[in-house]
Design brief:
The chain is of the alpha/beta class. It has one domain: Aldolase class I (TIM Barrel). The protein contains seven helices and 16 strands. Strands 3-16-15-10-9-8-7-4 form an eight-stranded parallel beta sheet. Strands 5-6-14-11 form a four-stranded antiparallel beta sheet, with no helix packed on it. Strands 1-2 form a two-stranded antiparallel sheet. Helix 2 packs parallel to helix 3, helix 3 packs parallel to helix 4 and helix 4 packs across helix 5. The longest helix is centred in the C-terminal third of the chain and has 15 residues. The N terminus is likely disordered. Bound molecules: flavin mononucleotide.
Length: about 325
């Protein structure tokens, strides 16, 4: 059984078009994509790790794992724990730092993806601006994604993404430092995600992506051990899709800014459901661990599904949901 459709087998597809003639191209603000499928940060490495599985240009965009100013080791083990229909993680953003990426990785990576989105996280709003400035104008970098779910060391270690005023300042600092398209990646661990999206838009973010992982935990009552070394971590995978769907819908109807949906995508129906609810593009995360070539599989099936439903373009599905 195909992991993409649940029913039929399908193979890899050329970038941009599926096996049928449907036009898969979409725009996320100033960022034009040949198709709406993107990798979700942290689940496809720095991009090059996926090359054994598919040609990176098959994806609408490759989003690299979060880069920080200085190298980070990440969190104590265990860092991953499976739950019903989901995955808990507390990876802790291990990476070799922005300079290593710029000097050692980008020269190889540039030009291999149809679009390359670099995901960054700072410890202060100014550091986000600094990181953005370092990436501005580098060949091969097409856009930035801001991971605002990480702790703000100036704000009592609370995540940036919880406070619309802090998000406004953070995005403004990034905006001043770069002409690149900016995507602000929103945390679901807030009471009003549309208010945070609105703050990002007011500071001139070109788009928002949502959702990052939901806070969760697990415990083995027999051993008394929590599933994760940090006890609390982030839940991802199909279990979070209905929550992400609700948030995508809320943001897309309340805030006039392109939305990229993230959360539990495994099938082409998931992709089209998110687009119907208002998303311009869709990222795929946890499914990579089961099906590393999920992106080209989805791209291939997307064209066929659209054509089968009499749709000539992917664009016409965006926001087509009928509100009762
Ligand atoms: C193992 C793992 C590592 C992740 N690392 C990052 C990261 O470095 N930066 C980030 O912005 N999001 C990170 N995420 C969150 C994903 O990009 C995505 O927002 C989330 O997993 C929901 O999508 P999914 O259900 O398709 O996995 C990570 C998720 C997982 C499962």
């Amino acid at each position: 059984m195909s992991p993409v459709t649940g029913t039929t087998a399908c193979g890899s597809a050329p970038a941009g078009k599926g096996p049928e003639a449907a036009d898969l191209s979409v725009d996320v603000g100033p960022l034009s994509l040949t198709n709406p499928l993107m990798t979700a940060s942290g689940t496809a490495g720095l991009g090059l790790e996926m090359e054994p599985f598919y040609d990176l240009s098959a994806a609408g965009a490759i989003v690299v794992k979060t880069l920080t100013k200085r190298p980070r080791h990440g969190n104590p083990m265990p860092r991953l724990c499976e739950t019903p229909s989901g995955l808990l993680n507390s990876i802790g953003l291990p990476n070799k730092g922005i300079h290593h990426f710029i000097d050692e990785v980008l020269p190889d990576l540039a030009g291999r993806a149809a679009r390359l989105v670099v995901n960054i996280a700072g410890t202060t709003t100014r550091e986000f601006g600094e990181l953005a400035g370092m990436l501005d104008g580098l060949p091969g970098v097409d856009a930035l994604e801001l991971n605002i779910s990480c702790p703000n060391v100036e704000g009592g270690d609370l995540p940036f993404g919880r406070d619309p005023d802090v998000v406004y300042r953070l995005v403004s600092d990034v905006r001043e430092a770069t002409a690149l398209p900016v995507i602000t990646k929103l945390s679901p661990n807030v009471s009003d995600i549309a208010a945070v999206a609105q703050a990002a838009k007011q500071a001139d973010s070109d788009a928002v992506s949502l959702i990052n992982t939901l806070l969760g935990m697990s415990v083995d009552w027999r051993t008394g051990r929590p599933g994760l070394g940090t006890v609390v971590g982030g839940l991802s995978g199909p279990a979070i899709k209905p929550i992400a769907m609700r948030m995508v819908w809320e943001v897309s109807r309340k805030v006039d800014i392109p939305v990229i949906a993230i959360g539990g995508v495994t099938t082409v129906d998931d992709v089209l459901e998110y687009m119907c609810a208002g998303a311009s593009a869709v990222q795929v995360g946890t499914t990579h661990y089961k099906t590393p070539d999920i992106i080209p599989r989805l791209v291939a099936e997307l064209g066929a599904q659209l054509a089968g439903a009499g749709r000539a373009t992917a664009r016409e599905v965006i926001g087509s949901m009928r509100t009762p």
